[in-house]
Amino acid sequence: MRVSLLQQQLVALKTEHRDLDAAVEVLLEHRPYDSLKLQRLKKRKLVLKDQIAALEDQLYPDIIA
Questions:
Q1: What is the four-CA torsion angle of 55, 42, 21, 23, rounded to 10 degrees?
Q2: Distances from the Cα of 36 to the Cαs of 8, 39, 41, 45, in angstroms?
Q3: Phi, psi of 32 (to 5 degrees)
Q4: Is 13 within 8 Å of 55 (Cβ atoms)?
Q5: Cβ–Cβ under 8 Å, residues 6 and 41
Q6: Domain range holding 24?
Q7: pLDDT digits (tens, 9 = 90+) for 4-18
Q8: What does the pLDDT look like over 30-61, one tens digit per residue?
Q9: What is the pTM of this model?
Q10: Within a domain: residue 46?
Q11: Number of domains in the chain
Q12: Residues 6 or more apart from 23 whose CB is under 8 A from it?
């Protein structure tokens, strides 16, 4: 059950990351854009990327043969 919960969290984080990516693209298309908002979106994306990597490490640990 723990793996299932982690997988659900991973899917949610990846979805949010994709949504933020789309939001950044839309923001960049409309000049002038709010640079502070852009900075905050990008920072949130980086946080999500780190969280995604941590969850993936828990789900799929590296096995050194």
A1: 130
A2: 31, 5, 9, 14
A3: -75, 145
A4: yes
A5: no
A6: 2-59
A7: 999 999 999 999 999
A8: 889 899 999 999 999 999 999 999 999 999 88
A9: 0.84
A10: yes
A11: 1
A12: 41
